Structure formats: structure tokens, C-alpha cells
Amino acid sequence: MRFFIGDVHGCADEYQQMLKEIFKRDHNPAIFSVGDLINKGPDTLGVLHLTLENKVKAILGNHEVWYLKIVKDPSLIRKGKDERLMSAFKGVEQLWAKRISEWPLFREFPDLDLVHAGLDPRKQKLAEMDQSILTTIRTWDGLGLNLNRQSQDPAWFKETKWPKKVVFGHWAQMGLVRYKNYLGLDTGCVYGRKLSCWCPESGELFQVKAKRIYCSP
Ligand SMILES: [Mn+2]
């Protein structure tokens, strides 16, 4: 069976617990991540090791895209949070940048599509959509100029018609999204809420509670 896990953001303990829950349900699962496995939380490298060991197939989130950018061009590293992100890799920055750079921007299945943030309401094919929209969109202003005017514009999924189910993450503030054929799985684990997982074959959605608040939104 397939299992789709929401944004982990370095929460290795909860991720490990979630993987355990998955293996309880299926000894040979196909596990997928919505992206944003790294950054913010306590153990980015631990999360990446669990991803490798359990053959979790990821896609790029905006935090992975940013990480690849600052590894390539260290002049972009901002004091504080980017320095913390870089130090989380403890000398294996290039190795992981190489591995992460192989993650795709989306994954297509016969019955559903997996993206990190959302879709471009104007386009009919994932391959035609910009990386920035796929990895950062929350709201749609009609033009794609501002992808995050949360109080003024509708959510992208209210403006998008898509023939398949869409699984995404990225919008912790929104919490679990179940709207028409759209399923949003970022339930804010790193903010002390929950890590979510959905299995299309069983229809089950299950969650692991965060052990604590690791970061403020
Ligand atoms: Mn994100």
C-alpha cells in the first residue's frame, strides 16, 4: 500500500513513530513525503537518514529548494535560521545537497498527483508549472504575482479544477485540508501539533502527536 506523510520539518522522533505505525499496517509499504522534510525542527539529519533507511520517496519542498540554493551560493546564507540549517548538516552539506537535488518537484500516479504546495490554476499539466508555484503557493490572486495573500485571496485549491486527486502539504496554518479532491497533510508537527499520514488503499488517515513545540509559526 502507499502512504503519504505530511511536512516533517526535522521532527525525527515523530517521523520514526509514524514509520513504525506504517510498518504495523504493511510490511512492504511504498512511502512518500510531501516535501519539507528538513529545517525548523530538532533533527534534520536524523530525518534524512530515516528517509534513506526506509526508502521514503520525497519530493522537493520550498525548504529543500532553498537549501540547494544556499549550498550552491553561500553568500545567500542569512544569519540565524539559515546558519542553523547549514549547521544541521554537520559537514555533509554537499553529499545531502546532491541526494536532495535528485528529488522530483512532483510525482504522478494513475489516481493522484503529489506536490508540495499546490497547483497553478491556469495550467493543465504539472510539467508546465513553475517550481515556485508548485513549492510555495497558498492563495491565488488571479495572476500568480502574490502566492500568499492569505486574508485577501482564495486558497489555490478553490480556484483549481483538476481531474485527479491532489495530495499536498506546506500550509500548516490551514491544518488538515479535505476539500473536494484535495488533501492537505501539513498539520504542523514542528509547531507542536501533529504529523499526518494518509493511505489511499485503505482510506485511513492517521496521526502522530508532536512531543513538544519545536518552533513558533
Ligand atoms: Mn513548505
Oligomer: single chain
Stretches where pLDDT is under 50 for at least 5 consecutive residues are none
Into which percent range does the helicity of residues fall? Answer: 25-40%
Query: Rg to the nearest angstrom?
Result: 16 Å
By DSSP (H or I, 4+ residues per run), the number of helices equals 6
Question: Which characteristics define this entry?
Answer:
binds manganese (II) ion; 217 residues; alpha/beta; 26% helix; 4-stranded mixed beta sheet; 5-stranded mixed beta sheet; 16% strand
What does this structure look like?
- The chain has 217 residues and is of the alpha/beta class.
- 26% of the residues lie in helices and 16% in strands.
- The chain has 6 helices and 9 strands; from the N terminus they run E-H-E-H-H-H-H-E-E-H-E-E-E-E-E.
- It has helices at 12-25, 44-53, 62-72, 81-87, 93-100, 131-136; strands at 2-5, 30-33, 106-108, 112-115, 165-168, 177-179, 182-184, 194-198, 205-209.
- The strands form 2 sheets. Strands 3-4-5-7-6 form a 5-stranded mixed sheet, with no helix packed on it. It has a 4-stranded mixed sheet with strand order 2-1-8-9, with helices on one face.
- Strand 4 (112-115), helix 6 (131-136) and strand 5 form a beta-alpha-beta unit.
- Helix 3 (62-72) crosses helix 5.
